[in-house]
Model the fold of this input.
Amino acid sequence: PLEMDYTLGGYGARMNKPSMGIHDDIWAKALVLDDGDKKYAIVTLDILGLPPNVKPQVIEQLNQEGWTEENIMFLPSHSHASLEMFALNDKNIFGIAPIGIFQPQLLDYLVNSLADLIKSADQNLKPVRIGSLSKQIDGLNRNRRGESFIDNFLTVTRIDHINGKPMTVLVNWTGHPTIMDEHDMHVSGGWPGYLQRELESHIAEGVVAMYYNGPVGDQSVIAGNAGSHYEKAEKYGRTMAVKALNVYKDIKTEEKIKFNYNYKIIQLPNREAHPDFMETGGKEYGLDKEKIMILLDQVFPEQTSIGACRLGDLLIVGAPGELIAELGLNIKDKLKARGVKYPAIGGLANQWISYILSENAYNRGGYETSASFYGKDLGKVIVKSMMETALPLIEE
Done:
């Protein structure tokens, strides 16, 4: 509801000004999978990201109905024209406009909506057939740091009813939804929102399209000219929908597939701001050296979690932040070498802790390091933990 006066996330220059209207609806969508022995929920959201407090509060609302931290994966799209992440963080007591001001009413609304969504999806389950396929797509995303690492794998998962009628399609493609900038003050799902709507229109029959981002830390989209930013996002989303549809049509589904999940809690390195922070993030977000240290101690967690889910030939492993493509591609290559046909990184899974960089990328500096808050070893720790979480799903 616009009367909540919520701000849009992703740009400190918005100065916590409330959204001026709704350009297009934003959605949360849940897919619940249950084999009679275990169940798992994949939830996609057309928002910037989630702070660490949201998922535990959703679990609490679910009233112990078989749901735990372990068997739910939240996958925000990272839209920069949607809800501000820090407005949802109940440890954000600072009232600093550029980083976003905590809104308890907005947090309660989101938590209750997500809990109701999962409860609804968990009812009246139907038997399905599942299949996945991946294809490399050139010329539609790039490395914004000028490096050679580009995750240009479009991975599509098709979930049909037993009679062949479409039910759900999952789309994994990597790129920042930043076509809208700080001057665009209307709510939008960005190009991922357009992708999902267009794909649902093409496939029809009531199908639900769900988008999740990849190792997006240094990946931008390559969008052509098309008038306003919203029109540009629409054009790009429609283009990606056609690409996804072409992959979708070639997918062969199966009734009996391997289905399992894994979950791991990990200790994070010590929290610290990058030496160049004051020249980048400090300026954008109105923070000095003293304020950033207080913010790190108060808002950023000492530990995080990694989740992974296997659906037949697809293996999604979550990254709790903005993993760069160099690290994401490294994980994918390792999983492929172990026999996974279609590995996918679920970017910003469950919670956003910061940008997740390799040691070399961290030492290079640049914008991404201004929001990387666990030192040069964070990438190494996260990659190791992602592999340790994913491997049991291969070796079973």
About this structure: The mean pLDDT is 95. The radius of gyration is 20 Å.
